[in-house]
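Class, look over these structure tokens:
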Amino acid sequence: MKISKIPHVFWRKAIFALCLTGLSLNSGWAESVPIIYGIKTISDSFVIKGIDLTDNGSFENELIRIERLPDEKINDIVQLTTADVAVLKVKSNNQSVIETVTNPTAVAAVTNLVSQEIPVDGLSQGIALQHAIALNKNTLIGVTSDIADTPPFKLVSLSLNSGKVTDIKSYSLSEDQRIANFTRCSDRIIYATTLSRQSGPRLVKIDSKNRKFSEVAELRFRDAPLRNDVMSLACSPSGELYALANPAYEATNSLYNLNQVDGQLTLVRQFDVEKITFNISLPDQPLSEISAP
């Protein structure tokens, strides 16, 4: 799979930004400042962008472009427990694949960007891996559903070594409930969102003791319940939640702070992407903490 470095104009912007923050290209942007990644589909590429949140999100940079084959689509972008990221894709034949990509913020310091496609094994025809997070260097957890991302959903684990999907049967998910937008914080709390016919979007977290998803808050915008679900969640190094959403039905999606107490969305800035994640490398967490013994 072909990966392109940032164009020359963005190289200059990246160097300028690093100079402003007192960093060198070799110091590693990813390890020095909280960067929120976003991924966007264009005709022949998936574009990964970055926003530096230390400057109130005012600086945005295009990092890399990943070659996109005809009819490929993005389901999620996942920060791995290393500095690399994984892109969850569905190919034209409905095959789910995971493409792991070299640390996007280190493109200025490397000459050969590496990507690897891992076919997802163990899914029935018409079923896709929709949303996921990394637990450790070998394991993702997430959900599967039909290609259209509609219920019913199954909670699964996935081996990054083999691509094999395994159902986590100890969690009972409602037949009519959509569950999406997984993110993991440094305190090991895993958040997601749910949506059903009976209720609007909710922020939930995994209750591993009772093997269920517990409601945290109703999602709200301008003091009113959110009508449509957010598009993606990400947890910052300090434990703040961010959401990608478009509650005002504008031409471009936007990045919001998400209050974990009352579910309110507060605008940060516009961000023309489809999915988000942070550049933080979290400590490994064993699958046994989530699934039944």
Remarks:
- The longest helix spans residues 8-20.
